[in-house]
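The authors assume throughout that readers already know how a fold can be written as discrete tokens. For illustration, here is how one protein appears when written out as sequence plus structure tokens:
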Amino acid sequence: MRQLIPALLLLTLLVPAAAAVEVPVTRAQFVSALWSWAGSPPCAGGQPFSDVPQTAPWLSALCWAAGEGLVRGTGGLLFTPDRPITREEAAILLRRYAARLGRDVSFPEIARCNDFEDISPWADDSLYWATGTGLIGWSEGGRLDPQGTLTQAQLDAILTSFSQ
């Protein structure tokens, strides 16, 4: 029994730390959250991606996002739903949706970031827009961290800011 007590104490100390680690939001989860935030509108058309099962619980969300022109996939008719969404991909979806809503999506004037060379050419305006409007926060050290992923807490904060 005495040998068990240190092991239980160690386990008690480690479990809260493990629970605090947030899992990145996947591409499918991000699209589902945006669709829910939009009021779960009906899908207008089919989904164009070959790697999405017809039984996926988020199929309506993806179908809506594709129909709205928000998602275009990752190439080769793939959506890659289980891959964590990057900050630059999230910025593109948000900017496209903001444009569909008639919001100003012009390029804001923001401070220069320390990792601008890491931003994909197809995402730079959108990432600068999302950061400049405060939807996506800066990472530590003056970085935009374009290849970084989002946590559920960050996604919730983004959608709360998007509502305003």
Confidence is low (pLDDT under 50) at residues 1-15. The chain has six helices and no strands.
